[in-house]
Amino acid sequence: xxxxxxxxxxxxxxxxxxxxxxxxxxxxxxxxxxxxxxxxxxxxxxxxxxxxxxxxxxxxxxxxxxxxxxxxxxxxxxxxxxxxxxxxxxxxxxxxxxxxxxxxxxxxxxxxxxxxxxxxxxxxxxxxxxxxxxxxxxxxxxxxxxxxxxxxxxxxxxxxxxxxxxxxxxxxxxxxxxxxxxxxxxxxxxxxxxxxxxxxxxxxxxxxxxxxxxxxxxxxxxxxxxxxxxxxxxxxxxx
Length: 239
Hints:
Helix content: 25-40%
Number of helices: 7
Distance between the termini: 15 Å
């Protein structure tokens, strides 16, 4: 069995990213993740993507609601293209105070709104890849205009994985139902992960028809766990 370790960016100085990313790839790092704290989470990934060929690249996480899904769709599409299919879009909601007071946003129920963000992203990407008429209508978002002038067109790897951050059963169920991965908060205990989060994810998987058997303790999609290393169904430990 091989061991895959993921890393976060230790520096957001874009001048240092090329050497850092290349060195991480040389060492066999599985993925490089950027967080939305003091800097934009996407810019270092663009630099890293242009300077590597194998390492996976993703956000852990980008705050979803301050950005229009259309803006995020373009950013993710371009990162997926330049990386050759190595990009993972990790999204989170942040808490009410930060949304209202740091981003100056109207607060809405975060779970249903994040679900709409994800479904809207996929509708937009489908329109770009397949020419499907764009017609997404939800409670928080509406997208029904896409002309050829604004469409970037098809790319080689259009299926962009979407991960979400989750700290409660609702979000964990949603991750299992419509997402490709789950970012687990570092403050979770192993007991909470086993007894609350894991069953909620499996419930979502069953609801989507993607449920797997319980013969293995890792009967999930390839979730990436921020806090607790675990073996995936491929025999690879991810952290």
